[in-house]
Amino acid sequence: MKPTRVFDFLYYQLEKYPIANAFSSKINGKWVGYSTQQMVEIVNSLSLGLLQLGINKNDKVAIISPNRPEWNFVDLAIQQLGAVSVPMYPTISIEDYKYIFNDAGVKIVFVFDKELHKKVATAIQSLETAPKVFSFEKIEGVSHWKEVEELGKKGDVKILEPLKKAVQPSDLLTLIYTSGTTGRPKGVMLSHNNVCTNAMSVVKALPLDAGKSPILSFLPLCHIYERTASYFYMFMGCSVYYAESMETIAANIVEVKPHCFTTVPRLLEKVYDKIVSKGKALTGIKKALFFWALELGLKYEPHLEMGWWYDFQLKIANKLIFSKWREALGGQLRSISSGSSALQPRLARVFWAAGIKVCEGYGLTETSPVITANLPQKEFTRVGTVGLVIEGVEVKIAEDGEILCK
Fold first, then answer.
1. DSSP code of 141?
2. pLDDT of residue 180
3. Nearest to 172 by CA among 284, 289, 86, 279
4. Are 186 and 180 contacting, i.e. CB atoms less than 8 angstroms apart?
5. Closest by Cα among 12, 18, 21, 15 to 240
6. Helices and strands: H and E segment counts in the chain
7. For residue 159, how many other CB atoms are within 10 A of its CB?
8. pLDDT tens by residue, 68-92
9. Who contacts 389 (Cβ-Cβ below 8 Å, separation ≥6)?
10. Using one digit for the tens of pLDDT, what is the confidence trace for 226-243?
């Protein structure tokens, strides 16, 4: 089967690469994962539960939570009914929540914890029709997401088949409200086809082993960048591990030993600064070697032949210095995908020199999101650029310099 709707990725994984840990998060200090089969069962029960709660095709359901497997469960369950997910940032204002609930016509909201529930409860107070609220964490007096699953377990999964078949690739998948630069948040409308084709088109940009590669995820799923990446991981049968928080990323990387992760330049800057600060704390020959290797790396151009003398020096630098950088990032990284803002060329050069392939790309929420990407093969990357146009996308530059994308 070739996925044409986003929820097809789940069944594609079940058919091609059923895995023991499709999505995992840490609970009480231990990684707790869900197999592909468990996901299918949970998602189907949630779909049936939502159906009993009155959710039908084109109805809107909001998700407000940090990354966790439950996010994916609810997202896929919504899709199977032909309903529309409205992911929202946990950090936005109560006023923005109120506006989006009203503008989108949200019928049900899934929230993470007590703090977020408090914001949502305040936002819905003055709405004409208040959406029903469920929580991922247990909160006294608030319905828990498991109640929806339990409700669905009483139903017949066969009911879902005609509903899934009725979902067309051109149907609306999600409404993503971006902050914009003027006025109220604006809802970007993306179809199943938009996101589905985009997820499958980045295969060349992320060199992973189907059914085997571990992934660390920490960028927010409510942003299209990480969300489309999560569908790609499902398509490839990757085991996705959600970082506990932004503060634990370094420790989680060492634990998970990912083959790949997506990031933003600011986080790479922090990694680089931390490495340099450790170098500054060294003394004598160790310090001299560290900064010699660093200077060497800052001159690197992946696509160019640097000459035998440079290559010889880089080999020594890799053995003595850069090998420790790779170990700090799990030791198995094949590439890092960087997007959402411009990457400093010096970062790309030094990481590539260290054997850490940072591939910069470009896109928008409106483009699902990838338009272009540098690839992890040396000949297909150019430091300081956003790479090649991916398959299925066309780009041209208008006379006034505007980028036109189809």
1. T
2. 61
3. 86
4. yes
5. 21
6. 15, 18
7. 13
8. 999 999 999 999 999 999 999 999 9
9. 371, 372, 395
10. 999 999 999 999 999 999
